[in-house]
Amino acid sequence: MSTSPPEPPSAPSPEPSRSTTSVLERELVEQPQLSEPGDHERFAHYVRKEKIMTSALSGEPVTALCGKVWVPGRDPQKFPVCPACKEIYDGLRAPADGGPGSGGGAGSGSGGGQQ
Asked: Residue ranges of the domains in the chain?
């Protein structure tokens, strides 16, 4: 088996090629970020932070102050606060035992359904 050195690249041909290429230009229209169906009906709910973390690891549903049960999965910053959760949260007082939840220990998540 003989190996010969590779041939050097050839210079471009002076003749124009027979095929042509065209560029179709179109205007780029930016679209707003699409939200998921039903997002206009969703609220951010109050849930203890520990419950949110547990749910994130286990996939088990959480229960909000208003009673809504769901598995959090969306950014709560994108939704208005649930009016029922806010009313309940505003009426809460700090735990007397100084345990978890003292100092505003409620977290937030988001879920579907209008209250």
From this structure: 39-111
